[in-house]
Amino acid sequence: MSYVRKLGASALVIAAAFAVAFAVLVSSPTQTVEAAVHDGPDVSEGDNTALTGADLTKNNGDTVYISNAAASDAVYVTFTIQTVEAASASFTHASASDDGQSITCNAGGACDADPTDTGSATVALKIDDDSGAGAIFVRQATVAATPVEALDTITVVVAQVPTRLTAKPVDASINSGQGAADPGTTYLDIRLLDANNKGIADTAITIVSTRALLSRPADVDGVSPLVRTFNTEEVTVGSIADGTAAALAGTATTSEDARADDETNPDVDTAGWVRVAVTGGGAPGVSTITVTAGELSTTTEVVLHGGAKNLAAEAEQSAIELNGMTNIVVTVTDSGGNPVKDARVSIKGKGGIVPPAQGDTAVAAVVNVNKDGGTIGALTDKGDIPACGDVAEVEADDTTTPPTVGVAESTGTNDAGQCVVKVTATDNTGTDNDAARGTHTITLVSGSSGVAPRGVDEVVVEIQVGGAPASIESDAPERIDPSDELTVNVTVLDDEGVRVGAVFVEVIKTDGPGAIIADTQAKTSDGRASFTYLASSRPDVAEFLVRTYNANADGTRGSTVTAKLPIIVEIAEEVVEPEPVVEEEPVVEEEPEPVVEEAPSLSIPSADLGLVLGVFSGGTVDELKAAVAAVCANDGVVIWSTPGSGGPVSMSPAAPDVINAGFGRAYPDGLPSPTALQIVDCGGAPEAMDGMEETGNGMEETGNGGEENGG
Question: Are 227 and 251 within 8 A, CB to CB?
Answer without folding.
Answer: no
